[in-house]
Design brief:
It contains three helices and 13 strands; from the N terminus they run H-E-E-H-E-E-E-E-H-E-E-E-E-E-E-E. The chain has 239 residues and is an alpha+beta fold.
Length: 239
C-alpha cells in the first residue's frame, strides 16, 4: 500500500514538472523576435533637397552627385551584434543627381567610415548594415576607414541642428531653415531621404566636407538647403 502511494506521488510530481516546463514563459515561442536597430540619422547632399522646381531643375545633372549618410545607433543588434553607441558614415559619389527619380535607385561608389570604437565583429556588422540599408548607393565600396566619430543630432529646439565629426575625414554642421532661406516662395522637400527613416526634417547645411582618398575627389559645401535629420528604426526583415 505504501509502495503504491509512493508511486502515485512520484507520478504526480513528474506530471506537474512537465506541465510547468511546457508552459514556462518564453519557452518554445512560435517565433523569436527579430533583432533590429534604432538611432539618429543625418544626410547631406551637394544639391538642395528643400527647393522649388526652378532651383532643383537648374541643379539637376550638374550637382547633387555627392552625399554623406550618417547613422548613429542608440540601441539594437544587427546580425546578432550589438551596435549600441556606435556610428557609421557612407560617403557616396554617383554619376547622376542623387534623388532624381529617373535614375532611382542610383548606383554609387562609397567610402565607409566605421567608428573606431567598434571591434572587428562590430565593424563587420556596421558594414553589413550599410550595404543592406543603402543598397545600390554603396554598390561599390572603394574603401573602409576607421575613425573616431562624434554625432550630435537634434539637440536644439527646432530639431534640425546637427554636428558630425569623423577625424580629419568628415565634418558636418546644420541648422534649422529660416525665413531668409526661402528663395522663390514655393519650396518643398523636393527629394525624399535616400534611405528608410522616420520623421525626416529638412535642414540648412552650414558646412559639409569630405577630405579623403579613394573617391578621386574631396569636396566642401556651405550654405545649402541640402540636409535631412531623422530617426531610423530598422529590422533586417523590413528591407
Amino acid at each position: 500500500m505504501i509502495a503504491c502511494d509512493l508511486r502515485l506521488l512520484m507520478k504526480t510530481f513528474l506530471t506537474l514538472g512537465v506541465c510547468a516546463f511546457c508552459f514556462a514563459p518564453g519557452l518554445f515561442s512560435a517565433k523569436s523576435p527579430v533583432a533590429g536597430v534604432m538611432g539618429d540619422y543625418v544626410e547631406i547632399r551637394s544639391c538642395d533637397v528643400y527647393a522649388g522646381a526652378c532651383i532643383a531643375n537648374s541643379e539637376m545633372n550638374l550637382s547633387g552627385r555627392e552625399g554623406m549618410l550618417v547613422w548613429s545607433f542608440r540601441q539594437g543588434q544587427w546580425n546578432g551584434v550589438s551596435l549600441r553607441g556606435l556610428s557609421v558614415i557612407a560617403v557616396v559619389r554617383t554619376d547622376e543627381t542623387l534623388g532624381d527619380r529617373r535614375y532611382h535607385p542610383c548606383r554609387g561608389k562609397a567610402v565607409l567610415i566605421v567608428d573606431a570604437q567598434a571591434d572587428s565583429v562590430q565593424e563587420a556588422a556596421l558594414i553589413a548594415f550599410v550595404k543592406k540599408t543603402a543598397g545600390s548607393l554603396v554598390s561599390e565600396v572603394a574603401a573602409v576607414k576607421s575613425s573616431p566619430i562624434e554625432v550630435r543630432a537634434g539637440q536644439c529646439a527646432s530639431g534640425a541642428c546637427a554636428r558630425v565629426k569623423a577625424g580629419n575625414l568628415v565634418e558636418i554642421s546644420t541648422r534649422c531653415l529660416g525665413g531668409k532661406d526661402h528663395l522663390c516662395g514655393n519650396e518643398e522637400d523636393f527629394y525624399p531621404p535616400l534611405t528608410s527613416v522616420q520623421t525626416p526634417l529638412s535642414a540648412f547645411t552650414e558646412l559639409a566636407s569630405y577630405k579623403g582618398p579613394a573617391l578621386n575627389m574631396t569636396w566642401e559645401l556651405t550654405a545649402k538647403r541640402s540636409a535631412y535629420l531623422a530617426t531610423f528604426a530598422v529590422r533586417p526583415d523590413s528591407l
